[in-house]
Task: structure prediction
Amino acid sequence: MYLEHFQLKELPFRLSPDPAFLYLSQIHSRAKAYMESTIWFTDGFVVITGEIGAGKTTLIETFLKEIDQDVVVAQINQTQISPIEFLQTLLAQFGFSPFRMRKAELLATLNQFLIEQYANGRKVLLIVDEAQNLSNKVLEEVRLLSGVETTKEKVLRIILAGQPQLNDKLDSPDLVQLKQRVRLRFHLTALSEPDATEYVRHRLRVAGAGDREILEPDTFPLIYRYTGGIPRLTNTLCDTALLAAFAQDRQTVSTDDVRSAIAELQWVEYAARTSTHLQGPLDDTAPQEQPPVGRVVLSLEGAQVTEAYLVPGRCVIGRTSDNDLQVESKYVSRHHAQIVTTVDGSWIEDLNSTNGIFVRGKRVRRHRLAEGDVVKLGLHELVYYRSDPRATATAVLEPDQDAAEDDLEAEEERDA
Result:
């Protein structure tokens, strides 16, 4: 990789939500203050929304890192669940084994726990990420929990974070009572152009660049034009631009490198993507926009779960629904791996996951995918098939004969 070339200590544009890289713009500072208010106010109930990649999860991780020790936290990220599963998950977060309890017992145990924590001087906080996926029935359980109180005050603080669809749900007639319980609502917008520029510089400084200008000043307007100030898109484009500069043995990233990255990702300007509705701001791998050059099939215990077509760009794989390919498993990290695809083929890269990725029984950091390769992610398997861009979307090429040589090259890059 390019770390040694640019004299960096770590990758500056990883997609994983690392609090060390958080850039507190004015809007992010305000959202974080709203989260903190749940601790200050006894009726703390806050809703934070934002587009995919706006930085909600990183804010949550930063907030949790700074939280006082007298706060007991339950964090729920898997939100496509039933009301019973929601209550069980919540109690499991608090250290119970609730999976054989009936609903009445679940509620009684939870109420008793909340009252006991209050009596012992501890605050209890529930954080639900990807809350837009909660059904109305589960949101009704959230409302009922928010009403648990002593004679003086509420005993459960709540933060719901999610995509803009969460606001639509809360504004629906079916959830009027829940909406009335919400103390504060805030929507994370994209970064302004000055903030987006400082965001890139901040991440490079944290990664070890110091005061060095690795990206030339005239690259920033171009980056903003194609990312719209969305942090995740900015990370993707900047990372690809660094690779382009590294490949040309340049010490700084020029506009030529950024344009090369844009061409590799096959992006159009952000305003054009959002105004025409051809693809969403993060749907850079949408198969209807570009011909697929490969596909991956996800399976569990031999049964196919889903498949995804690969086009030039990035396909991020992980546990939560903001990924391009979601793998619902506790053994898979929030953002576990990514597949970077060009017309010449695809690479899979580990995104600093807890359990890693394995090819042919060996844990790898980066691996060029060959026809039929099986990648292990926890208990799941991902099988890669290469499609011929000159033929139909489902045509399959012969196995990549250079895979072993490419693997060796990848290992040498990683060691470097």
